[in-house]
Amino acid sequence: xxxxxxxxxxxxxxxxxxxxxxxxxxxxxxxxxxxxxxxxxxxxxxxxxxxxxxxxxxxxxxxxxxxxxxxxxxxxxxxxxxxxxxxxxxxxxxxxxxxxxxxxxxxxxxxxxxxxxxxxxxxxxxxxxxxxxxxxxxxxxxxxxxxxxxxxxxxxxxxxxxxxxxxxxxxxxxxxxxxxxxxxxxxxxxxxxxxxxxxxxxxxxxxxxxxxxxxxxxxxxxxxxxxxxxxxxxxxxxxxxxxxxxxxxxxxxxxxxxxxxxxxxxxxxxxxxxxxxxxxxxxxxxxxxxxxxxxxxxxxxxxxxxxxxxxxxxxx
Length: 316
Description:
Blueprint: H1 2-9, H2 15-19, H3 30-67, H4 78-83, H5 86-119, H6 125-138, H7 143-153, H8 158-165, H9 180-204, H10 208-216, H11 221-250, H12 253-259, H13 266-274, H14 285-312
């Protein structure tokens, strides 16, 4: 009996206690840590989620529902037949044309300016001035921008008067501020600086070690850009191009103030519906136009996301 008691007193502890370090609780496992991080991230994103749901999701749902509603509240495709024919179809075509012009040209010009800034010293005054000015110009738009160009390059604008005095007539050169080409010219005022701002970080992401490795292997400068630099920058460039396309397609206030609705653009046509210029029985045609814009911008954002996923593997 005594031997049995002694054996029980010196017998090893259960495996569960031994694994727990003498009965002490172990720290949280990797799964619980990841779960806690996910909860914290979810809490941090909650305000943005609420904001997006209220000011993006709810209006988009209302537009989609209203686009297929008749004046009596029933389902109809009559709005689509009106929105994608005649002047409204021309508005989509003109808007897409304007977006293409004001994205391709600013993308090329902005990329060249960003490269010139990138080649300079990081602490140079010129670099700081260009980046600061780009940030200001990229945010300057709407009615003030339209007024500035009307006062300078309009029919009786100050710059137009100066050019007339030296024998340069803009009308004879084919430039008219109140046409599609004039609107495109004004859009470039903020599209080019925007391209500089969003493309410059991509240029900064080109690692010097890549160029050094290429030179050590005997590659020339053009070979580095052909096989390394341009393939790395191409996804970002096309992503920026899509963003500029989206900005040009959805801009409203500048074109409306500049042309007073004389050009058929989809945002201006939607604004006309919101202002009450509605034909009887076509109350929801404006919502169908809005749905068309949502589809175009949705395709743009999906393509942008795919391009960014391709670019992300180069910046890990």
